[in-house]
Each structure stands twice: as C-alpha cells, then as structure tokens.
Write a structure and sequence with these properties.
Elements lengths: L1 H7 L5 E5 L6 E7 L15 E7 L9 H8 L13 H18 L9 H5 L9 E8 L1
Parallel strand pairs: 1-4
Antiparallel strand pairs: 2-3, 2-4
C-alpha cells in the first residue's frame, strides 16, 4: 500500500541522466498501445524497456540486461543530458525498432497506433528516458 501512495506522487513521465557509466547509451521506457480496449481514456498498454548503446544499432530489450546497466545508487552522480537533437534521433531509432519489430506483429494494433498519430489516445508513448554518460 505504501508504494501505491508513493507512485501517485510521481509525474507521468520521468527523465534523467546517469554519469560515470561503464556503458554509454540511452534507456527508454515506452507504453505500447493496449489491445482490445475501446475506451480512449484507458491507458493500460504494456510498458517495455529499451536500451540503445552509443555507436550501436542493436536495441537491447531484455529487462535483466538493461537493469544491470541502469541501476543506480543514491550517491551516483547525475550527468547533464546530451543536446536535444542528438537524444531525439536516438529515441527515433528506438521507436523505429518498436514499430518494425513489435507493433506490426500485433494483429490488434491499428495503423494510427503504429504511426503514433497524436489524435490516437491509445498509441505508442514515451514514459521515461535516462542517458548513461
């Protein structure tokens, strides 16, 4: 019960940057479109983790592997995020991976959800990201 109260205080999205990492890259958490929900006010789509290492084209999707990379201690130094255009391009690469490797395989996902049409409430949504520098 205490965790639910704590989560209610968090913002809808979380962004950060971790310094002094052994592996550099970008972590992102996305909410995928929910399947079989007709109510536009319901956002119960599955949350998935992704990590794109710097200089790499392969997006990591295994939670255990990503968790080892992004885990932080309270004393870990926070870094300044990279310039917005660079981060935006890297997020777009992760989104391309999601759209081509995951969303198109889901039979119940509409094209508006795949494209991420802003008028579509039940679409792919970035929930949080963290730079590893």
């Amino acid at each position: 019960p205490e965790i639910e109260n704590l989560l209610e205080e968090f913002p809808l999205r979380i962004f950060s940057a971790k310094g002094n990492s052994s592996v550099q890259g970008l972590f992102a958490c996305y909410r995928l479109p929910s399947i079989g929900v007709d109510d536009p006010n319901v956002q119960l789509g599955e949350l998935r983790w992704y990590f794109l290492p710097d200089g790499g084209a392969q997006v990591l999707t295994t939670i255990e592997e990503i968790d080892r990379l992004i885990a932080c201690d309270p004393a870990d130094q926070r870094a300044e995020p990279r310039p917005l255009p660079e981060r935006y391009e890297r997020l777009k690469a992760i989104e391309r991976h999601i759209k081509t490797n995951e969303l198109k395989r889901r039979k119940a996902t509409t094209m508006a959800q795949v494209v991420g049409d802003a008028s579509e409430a039940n679409r792919l949504q970035l929930v949080g990201w963290m730079e590893l520098a």
